[in-house]
Write a structure and sequence with these properties.
This protein is an all-beta fold. Helix content is 0%, strand content 59%. A hairpin with a 4-residue loop joins strand 7 and strand 8.
Protein backbone atom coordinates (compact mmCIF):
# COMPACT_ATOMS: atom_id res chain seq x y z
CA UNK A 1 0.00 0.00 0.00
CA UNK A 2 1.02 3.57 -0.66
CA UNK A 3 -0.18 6.71 1.04
CA UNK A 4 0.17 10.12 -0.57
CA UNK A 5 -0.17 13.42 1.25
CA UNK A 6 -0.21 16.69 -0.66
CA UNK A 7 0.64 20.06 0.84
CA UNK A 8 1.57 23.56 -0.24
CA UNK A 9 -1.71 24.77 -1.68
CA UNK A 10 -3.23 28.08 -0.77
CA UNK A 11 -4.43 31.45 -1.98
CA UNK A 12 -2.14 33.44 -4.23
CA UNK A 13 -2.51 36.45 -6.49
CA UNK A 14 -2.25 36.11 -10.24
CA UNK A 15 1.40 36.09 -11.27
CA UNK A 16 2.47 34.50 -8.02
CA UNK A 17 4.08 31.16 -7.29
CA UNK A 18 3.40 28.07 -5.23
CA UNK A 19 5.27 24.83 -4.65
CA UNK A 20 3.19 21.76 -4.00
CA UNK A 21 4.62 18.71 -2.29
CA UNK A 22 3.49 15.10 -2.40
CA UNK A 23 4.94 12.94 0.34
CA UNK A 24 4.68 9.22 -0.29
CA UNK A 25 4.87 6.50 2.33
CA UNK A 26 4.51 2.77 2.29
CA UNK A 27 5.83 0.44 -0.36
CA UNK A 28 7.60 2.50 -2.98
CA UNK A 29 8.95 -0.58 -4.75
CA UNK A 30 8.32 -0.60 -8.49
CA UNK A 31 7.09 2.98 -8.59
CA UNK A 32 6.89 3.92 -12.25
CA UNK A 33 5.31 7.34 -12.56
CA UNK A 34 4.34 10.14 -10.21
CA UNK A 35 2.13 12.91 -11.39
CA UNK A 36 0.00 15.90 -10.58
CA UNK A 37 -3.57 16.32 -11.72
CA UNK A 38 -6.12 19.01 -11.03
CA UNK A 39 -9.86 19.37 -10.94
CA UNK A 40 -11.64 22.69 -11.14
CA UNK A 41 -15.28 23.04 -10.05
CA UNK A 42 -17.61 21.57 -12.64
CA UNK A 43 -14.75 20.18 -14.72
CA UNK A 44 -13.12 16.80 -15.15
CA UNK A 45 -9.84 15.97 -13.52
CA UNK A 46 -6.98 16.72 -15.89
CA UNK A 47 -3.30 16.00 -16.15
CA UNK A 48 -0.90 18.74 -15.09
CA UNK A 49 2.47 16.99 -15.16
CA UNK A 50 4.10 13.59 -14.75
CA UNK A 51 7.60 12.33 -14.10
CA UNK A 52 8.80 8.78 -14.64
CA UNK A 53 11.27 6.84 -12.55
CA UNK A 54 13.77 7.56 -15.31
CA UNK A 55 13.22 11.30 -15.00
CA UNK A 56 11.17 11.86 -18.14
CA UNK A 57 8.73 14.72 -17.70
CA UNK A 58 5.46 15.45 -19.41
CA UNK A 59 3.40 18.64 -19.10
CA UNK A 60 -0.04 19.73 -20.12
CA UNK A 61 0.07 22.41 -22.80
CA UNK A 62 -1.77 24.80 -20.50
CA UNK A 63 1.07 24.82 -17.97
CA UNK A 64 4.19 24.37 -20.12
CA UNK A 65 6.83 26.94 -19.33
CA UNK A 66 5.19 27.83 -16.01
CA UNK A 67 5.35 24.56 -14.09
CA UNK A 68 8.15 22.18 -13.15
CA UNK A 69 7.71 18.70 -11.72
CA UNK A 70 10.50 17.06 -9.77
CA UNK A 71 11.16 14.15 -7.44
CA UNK A 72 13.38 13.78 -4.41
CA UNK A 73 13.92 10.05 -4.09
CA UNK A 74 15.59 10.18 -0.69
CA UNK A 75 12.44 11.75 0.76
CA UNK A 76 9.92 9.86 -1.43
CA UNK A 77 8.51 13.24 -2.35
CA UNK A 78 7.37 14.80 -5.60
CA UNK A 79 7.08 18.53 -6.12
CA UNK A 80 5.22 20.83 -8.44
CA UNK A 81 6.69 24.30 -8.75
CA UNK A 82 4.12 26.62 -10.27
CA UNK A 83 5.02 30.12 -11.43
CA UNK A 84 3.11 32.89 -13.18
CA UNK A 85 -0.12 31.51 -11.81
CA UNK A 86 -3.38 32.45 -13.49
CA UNK A 87 -6.95 32.44 -12.16
CA UNK A 88 -7.68 29.49 -14.46
CA UNK A 89 -5.13 27.46 -12.49
CA UNK A 90 -7.57 27.47 -9.58
CA UNK A 91 -8.39 23.85 -8.75
CA UNK A 92 -7.85 21.05 -6.32
CA UNK A 93 -4.48 19.51 -7.13
CA UNK A 94 -4.02 15.78 -6.68
CA UNK A 95 -0.91 13.66 -6.59
CA UNK A 96 -0.94 10.23 -8.23
CA UNK A 97 1.53 7.39 -8.09
CA UNK A 98 1.46 4.51 -10.54
CA UNK A 99 3.35 1.28 -10.05
CA UNK A 100 4.85 -0.76 -12.85
CA UNK A 101 1.97 -3.27 -12.43
CA UNK A 102 -0.42 -0.35 -13.15
CA UNK A 103 -1.80 -0.04 -9.62
CA UNK A 104 -2.56 3.60 -8.94
CA UNK A 105 -2.75 5.59 -5.74
CA UNK A 106 -4.16 9.06 -5.20
CA UNK A 107 -3.73 11.68 -2.52
CA UNK A 108 -6.56 13.65 -0.95
CA UNK A 109 -5.76 16.84 -2.84
CA UNK A 110 -4.73 20.37 -1.96
CA UNK A 111 -6.65 23.49 -2.93
CA UNK A 112 -4.98 26.13 -5.07
CA UNK A 113 -6.83 29.40 -5.52
CA UNK A 114 -5.48 32.16 -7.73
CA UNK A 115 -7.12 35.55 -7.39
CA UNK A 116 -7.18 38.09 -10.21
Amino acid sequence: QVQLVESGGGLVQAGGSLRLSCAASGSMFNTNVMGWYRQAPGKQRELVATITSGGNRNYADSVKGRVTISREYAKNTAYLQMNSLKPEDTAVYYCKLRKSDCREYWGQGTQVTVSS
